[in-house]
Amino acid sequence: MLKDITLGQYYQTESLIHRLDPRVKLVGTICYIISLFLVNKIQGYVIALIFLAIIIRLSKVPFKFMVKGMKAILFLLLLTVVFNLFLTPGETLISIWKLTITKEGVRVAMLMAVRLSFLIIGSSVMTLTTTPNHLTDGMEKLLNPLRKLKVPVHEISMMMSIALRFIPILMEETDKIMKAQIARGADFESGNLIKKAKALVPLLVPLFISAFRRANDLAMAMEARCYRGGEFRTKMKPLIYQRADRLAYLILIIYLVICFLAGR
Amino acid sequence: MSLLLEGVSHIYGEDTNLAVAALCNINLEIPEGQFIGLIGHTGSGKSTLIQHLNGLLQPSHGKIYFNGKDINEKSFDRKELRSKVGLVFQYPEHQLFEVTVFQDVCFGPKNLGLEQKEVEIRAYKALKQAGVKEEQFYQSPFELSGGQKRRVAIAGVLAMEPRVLILDEPTAGLDPAGRDEILGQIKKLQKETGITVILVSHSMEDVAEYVDRIIVMNKGKIILDNTPKEVFKEYKCLEEVGLAAPQVTYIMESLKEEGFMLSAEVTTIEEAKQEILSCFKK
Questions:
Q1: Could you report the per-residue pLDDT of A26-49, keeping only the tens digit for each?
Q2: Percent of residues, chain B, with pLDDT higher than 70
């Protein structure tokens, strides 16, 4: 059942990376992304690659799941590469018609491609090894200092986890209503755009009503258990840094220093 | 208008590592005009099975024939099939969407491409058959009570004038009075129009009174398929799969063990009453 209430992203397995505190993973991912954009020598990227490879190995998540994330941004990646390739001014390498490829262009394009792919793979490691609930927990704890500035940190993270929790439920609901309407002869596939949009009314109206009903029920259930927001709220499983987490931070700092020294 | 299933299996998520077989090798014949109870525990594959009957799900293996034609063939007219095999889902009131009750019931026949007049005649008839009061026809369906909403939703399928009516747990969440009323209306409709009705339920008590035939499912397989009397005789087998015969069966069994001369051929409370009374008269 548990796999049903998390997003499709999470890959359930037992590993060192899975067990890390979500805050470590969040901070680690952010630092890793920053490091990718600070270095600009090939040595820096080699180190970033080795670091990433070790993390993936430790996470025990099959590599094909990481590549899945890449597919979604393939178009964006190609676009950036092409634009950088042709539009960077500098020493001309090849010139075809009005398009010129420059030496700098090749360099920048490759740099961007590497940066973007590392960025995507790096952040998928985080989402693949952390459940959405853990992630929002970690985010709440990390953003806690903002509370002094009257930012409703707890409420934001609560909203996020409820939203994530409801995605699979609403998907199931959509499937059910769709089938019920198809059984009544509804047609969601044929016709032009306007006809298709109109055909969605019998799907969307019940879906919205059901979403409101569920939200209402949930609010009632939360209130019945005396939920009243973040103030004075304690946690059943509070996030506490363990030895492994401190060690992970140390490794992260060492990585950042090496990367910085080698890559600048 | 008969349905025939031949070696039908359905496997969810066949190409992933989480494959679950919901149906294994189902062979079933449903002739015209029968009132059938399809009984099984949660997760026994009942809902999966009925979604095959109007082509919402396609079998992983096996064939389904409607009037001798394979319904999963490319040339087969699915829309036609769905107008002939009406499926009322669990909690059908969640599918209501129109501004008025009447318009909502019109949705089905309108999709069949009928003329406006014919659509309205059918909607009116269906609402009457489902037992909706006339003063509710032009109310918003969302203002009705739970039981009334369910009637409207059932009318929405009846308006398509199906020859086979499948109802998935039509009484879930209703009180006993509402349950008896809805089931009574369905029985009456079946008698009047001679359509086939398949009633899906997890409770024997619900269906015993109404059906001619009971199909019991467990873990994706049909384990019993017979008349209610014969099925209830196997109450030990039913208990093994987490079901039970109606309480009347147990009372009659106990009375017989105590030495009363009763016949075992009793399925409903009314029959039991007659049997016990006649026993005391002797």
A1: 999 999 999 988 888 888 888 899
A2: 97
- CA dist., res. B249 & res. B268, Å (int): 8
Domain limits of chain A? 11-130+240-263, 145-224
CA-nearest residue of chain A to B103? A202
Please give, rounded to a whole number of angstroms, the shortest distance from the CA of B95 to a CA of chain A: 6
pLDDT(B41) > 60: yes
Q: Count, in order, helices (H) and strands (E) of chain A.
A: 11, 2
Quote the minimal CA–CA distance from A123 to chain B in Å: 25
For residue B248, how many other CB atoms are within 10 A of its CB?
20
Mean pLDDT over A56-83 rounds to 82
| pLDDT at residue A5 greater than cutoff 60 | no
What phi and psi values does residue B235 have, to the nearest 5 degrees? -65, -25
A182:B82 CB<8 A: yes
Over residues B25-37, the pLDDT tens digits come to 999 999 999 999 9
pLDDT at B1: 66
Nearest residue of chain A to residue B160 (CA atoms): A184
A179–B51 CB contact, under 8 Å: yes
Contacts of B108 in chain A (CB under 8 A): 184-185
Q: How far apart are CA A197 and CA B260, in angstroms?
A: 68
Note the pLDDT of residue B172. Answer: 86
Chain A residues closer than 8 Å to B111 by CB: 184-187
CB contacts, 8 Å: A205 with chain B: 97
> H or E stretch including A102?
strand A99-102
Q: How far is A17 from chain B (nearest CA, A)?
A: 23
Residues in A closer than 8 angstroms to B87, CB to CB, are 180, 183
Cα–Cα distance, A206 to A181 (Å, whole number): 10
Q: How far is CA A244 from CA A20, A128, B189, in A?
A: 7, 19, 69
- Beta carbons of B111 and A187 less than 8 Å apart: yes
Percent of chain B with pLDDT over 90: 41
- Three-state SS sequence of chain B: CCEEEEEEEEEECCCCCCCEEEEEEEEEEECCCCEEEEEECCCCCHHHHHHHHCCCCCCCEEEEEECCEECCCCCCCHHHHHHHEEEECCCHHHHCCCCCHHHHHHHHHHHCCCCHHHHHHHHHHHHHHCCCCHHHCCCCHHHCCHHHHHHHHHHHHHCCCCCEEEEECCCCCCCHHHHHHHHHHHHHHHHHHCCEEEEEECCHHHHHCCCCEEEEEECCEEEEEECHHHHHHCHHHHHHCCCCCCHHHHHHHHHHHCCCCCCCCCCCHHHHHHHHHHHHHC
Better-predicted residue by pLDDT, B245 or A79: A79
